Amino acid sequence: MDIIPVSRPSLGDDELNAIKPVFESGWLGMGSLVYDFEEKLKDFISAKNVVCTNTGTTALHLALESIGISKGDEVLVPSFTFISTIQAISATGAKPVFCDVRREDLNIDPSEIKNKITEKTKVIMPVHYRGLPCDMNIINKIASENNLRVIEDAAHAFGSSYDGKKIGSFSDIACFSFDPIKNITCGEGGAVVFQDDNLLEIIQQKRILGIDKDTWSRYKNERSWFYDVVTQGYRYHMSNINAAIGLVQIEKFKKMNERKIFAAKRYDAAFSNIKGITILRNDNYNDIGLFTYVMLIDNNRDKLMEYLNSKGVGCGVHYIPSHLFSYYKSDNVDLPVTEEIYEKIITLPLFPDITGGNIQRVIDVVCEGMKILNK
C-alpha cells in the first residue's frame, strides 16, 4: 500500500538543470546566484531589503541580533509554533514570553500581546500559521504605541498578502523559510526581509562570520583574502546551490500554490458538515500562500490518526506547544486555547504534486474514520 505523505517537495529536472552550472563553475558557496535570488525575492515581495540565509531559523536569529536583542530582553511570541521560532529567541539570551492564540485561526491573539507587555519587552514576533496572516494592523499599532519592534515569523507565509500587500513588503522585519516542505524550497534556506536600510550592512556581516565587505566579493564569485572582522557573526549564508534551486522554485510558486489551494478546498467541502470536525478560518484562501492543511477533531484525535496511518494516509500534529517542552516549561504560563487545540489539531496531506486520486483517498479515509468515531 502506497502511503500518502503529509508533505513533499515538488522538484524535478528544472532544479537539477539549474544546479549543474553551479557544479561546473566550481563556486558552490555564496556567490552571484545568491545575489540574483535576493533580487528576485525583492521583486516578488516588493521588499526594500533582502538577505538570504541558510535556514529560516538563522534568519530569525540574525534579525533579533541585528536590532540588539540580548539577555534580559523579552520577546512576545505564540507558544503554538515550531520550536525553531523559540530557539532563535533563546539563542540571543532573551526570554520568550508565550502568548495564547485565537481558536478560529490559531494565530497570536492581539489581546494577549497587550496584556503581557512589560518594561523588558522589546519585540513582538507573530507567526503566520498555515500562511494565514496575523492581524498586522493591530499588532503594528500595539508595537508603535509601546516603542516595540516587530519581527514576523513568515516561514509559512511566502506568497501571502495582508490588505493587498505581500507579507514582508510593509512591516518592520519578516523572516522566511525555504526548507524542503515550505511554499518554495531551496533545499534549505531562509531570508530576512526588512525596511530599515541601516540594518543591511550589519545583517550581511553577521551572516558571514562578522567579516566586513566579504558579501560583495562573494556576490561576484570572488574571495577577499584581506579583511577585518567587525562583529560577532555566524556561518549563516546561503550557497549558490540552494539559490539556484530557489530561482527555479519561485517561478513555479503560483502553480504549486494553486494546486494546494485546490486540494484544501476539496477537503473543506468534504469535511465541513461532518460531526466532530472544525474547519479553521481560511478567508476562502484569497491571497494566501498556503503551507499546510490543519483542522480540529473534537474528540479522539489520536484514534483518528491511528486509523489514517493504518490506511496509508499520512497525518501529523503541527505543533507541540513550546511551553510544554522541558527546556521552556514554566509554572506561570496559562494558555488555555493553545493547550485545548493541541489535543485536537491534525494535519492532512497537502503538497504541490498531490493527485486527484490522493485527495479523494484522504477524504474517503477521513470520512470512514470519523464515521467509526461518531458511533
TrEMBL record:
Keywords on record: Aminotransferase, Pyridoxal phosphate, Transferase
Keyword Transferase appears in the UniProt entry: yes
Protein family (similarity comment): Belongs to the DegT/DnrJ/EryC1 family.
Any one GO biological process: polysaccharide biosynthetic process
SUPFAM superfamilies tied to this protein: PLP-dependent transferases
One protein family per Pfam: DegT_DnrJ_EryC1
Organism: Methanoplanus limicola DSM 2279
Protein name as catalogued: DegT/DnrJ/EryC1/StrS aminotransferase
GO molecular function annotation: pyridoxal phosphate binding; transaminase activity
InterPro entries, alphabetized: DegT/StrS_aminotransferase, PyrdxlP-dep_Trfase, PyrdxlP-dep_Trfase_major, PyrdxlP-dep_Trfase_small
